[in-house]
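Record pair follows.
FIRST:
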Amino acid sequence: MKIAEAGFRVTGLPLRRKLRHAGTDTGELTEVFLRVRLADGHVGWAETRGNGAYATGCSTDTIVAALRTPGWQDTARLARRCPPAAMLVDIASRDAAARAQGIPLWATLSDSPAPSSLPTHAAIAFGTETQAAHLADAAVRDGFGRIKIRIGGDPAVDRARVTRVREVAGPSAVLAVDANGGWDTGTALAAARWLADLDVAWFEQPVTDLASMAVVRAGSPIPVWADESVRDAESVRAVAELGAADGVHLKLEKAGTVDVLAAAIETARRHGLDVGLGQMDCGRLGCVTTAQLAAGLGVPVAELWGCANVERDVTPGLELRDGAVPLPAGPGLGLRPELDTTTPMRIDS
């Protein structure tokens, strides 16, 4: 159904701890929120990350400029220019349409019943060995069965950090690591061996380019996953044909639309690759979006708690229970942000 009215807000979400990895160093998430009203009067919302250009290629200014460009409602065309902007339009429209039907967003993507809650990762960012141990202990107490650790810095420091997480989390915890392309081939190959000794389940984006990643995968005793290297069906196919990875970690922020994301997931499965669904660090509206998509597209390995480090969010209603995110019972996304809309929020068609 045609969008009758739309508007956006850019809002900063302060973090408890600075977000640091190979691509960023920030104390705040800059989030872009879009609100649309369909011709039938139903309203939908969406959230995307603005200061995540290291992963999406689009800054806050780029996203806003894309939303101001004539023809912005054409999500397929918008996705080619700025995937996060297309994500906003696609998800807000789907949220409104699902609300019009009185069903959750996931049910517009699947006829199969969805679980009441979805397990998710705990994330351990860069820091000291002591900080990693503290975060691992908190994750265990919060009921997480999976923990993902940022690595890709000093290999000796990272080895000590992963070792401490394994000691604290115990042998039953599933550990994964993400280097965000921070190492060269030799360092990554050496790391793969000690990661195997620590029973790490998979090694995400050890290096930046696919040719090097294929070399790492050939010599790695543990599965290698692609993240920064994949965004759509074509890039997933390239990873599979080069033998560069055993799995792919996909994000709607990079795919742009749900249709592009679904095609990438289908391509990965057709090539025998494992599939994980992720998100940029974001607020609760972004988290519930990923949860709805994981339920609707049948992806059991998903990162749904990117809001864990947010000190003050603008979207209430999503909580963590025993390492899992409960799916809201209401229609659409099931949540709405509490934003001051006294200032008009318009986008010219």
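SECOND:
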Amino acid sequence: MKNRLLPFLCILSLVACTTPVLIPPQTAIHAPHQQPVQSEAAKKLQMAEAKWQQTKPVHYSYTLQRTCFCPREYNHPIEIRVLNGVVQKAMLPLEQEPLPSVRMDEALTINDLFMLLHKAVDKKAASIDVKYDWKYGYPSSIAIDWEKKMADEETYFTARGLRAR
């Protein structure tokens, strides 16, 4: 009798181990819906960008100054005129001449500055310090340290004097 009962018990124990336990729907445990965690910088960016989208002029001008570990002339301010989100004119006020065409990618719109900040948040830059304009919401001061242990790769911009045209 023992010889016949042993295979039956072995099969029964295998089935018991592999049979799923069903929880009736009324007692099922549901995990709470979790929102993605947003950094403080991401929250401030989202609020400022929403303000900019509501208040941005169609035609505006402003002065952008970059500070970097690069040749001195790249740190000079640029006066930028924007129409419908496109740079119409970029001038070097200290030199009283247009920004050279090979440097036109330095003439950033306010939307370009927001894109730079989104990139910093998405890439989890080591440090992001931004001040936003109280009236329009655009980033008036940007300091990004992309890599904590790397020297001279920081990004600094100052945007000032925005005027609706």
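COMMENT: Confidence is low (pLDDT under 50) at residues 8-35.
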